[in-house]
Amino acid sequence: MEWSNYSMYADFVLLGLFSNTRFPWLLFALIVLVFVISVASNTMMIILIHLDSRLHTPMYFLLSQLSIMDILYISTIVPKMLVDQMVDQRAISFAGCTAQHFLYLTLAGAEFFLLGLMSYDRYVAICNPLRYPVLMNRKVCLLIVVAAWLGGSIDGFLLTPVTMQFPFCASREINHFFCEVPALLKLSCMDTSAYETAMYVCCIMMLLIPFSVISASYTRILITVYRMNEAEGRKKAVATCSSHMVVVSLFYGAAMYTYVLPHSYHTPEQDKAVSAFYTILTPLLNPLIYSLRNKDVTGALQKVLGRCSSSGR
Length: 313
Prior knowledge:
Blueprint: H1 2-9, E1 12-14, H2 24-51, H3 58-87, E2 91-92, H4 94-127, H5 132-135, H6 138-164, E3 173-174, H7 181-185, H8 193-227, H9 231-259, H10 268-292, H11 295-312
Parallel strand pairs: 1-3
Antiparallel strand pairs: 1-2
Membrane topology: Multi-pass membrane protein
Subcellular location: Cell membrane
GO molecular function: G protein-coupled receptor activity; olfactory receptor activity
């Protein structure tokens, strides 16, 4: 019983992202820069969407929710990692690891579902433009957001208690920079193969449902775009959808590598590199991809900067 209590509540040690790096402080400075730019750019997206009336549309409402998720997502992992590097300590309590695990799963799951449901918005906008205000009214937009958050929360509430109830009788050192499921399960002295199989099926379903919506939506979109007579309309439709497809490919591709590809095909160091990509870089890339290729967003930014410069004078 004493051993069980120890294995349940003792602190973990995160080996981190900097342990096997030749220039840890250079990597530290780069991650700080990425974190600041990511939070600032996503915050700017939310402010622009709120201030500019031209951006008060369903698509931009969903993009603002994506920015909120990205800010929370990167803030769940990166600040802890940076503080640990600064004070030269790697410990994380059992409660802290559980909370980080739950928030990570919830936010990642919510983003999966939101990206999938956003393809329905693009489908309606291109294939049924005349009915767009009816099919994507405020109630539908709220339902999409609630469904995304609910789906992510279910994922967190289902997987977190099961993962954290395993006795961790091996080393307390997690070969990762945050409490991710595969890295945690390697510390368990129990056979976790049945749980890993169930989690594999769960991840397949979480990827398959949104991916099915995306595939069906974009199949119809491609057919509609192919039938368009106007080159300008075709170009605008492709530009609008390509940003979403780039974000989906980056996020889903990295997740499939981590959770769907068998563990024998990747090493812990590769896992950390891929996890760093979709937990640190993706929240940075999302606002950049959507803003740089979008005239409405760049126009709104120029308008706000113009107001600020004129008021400064």
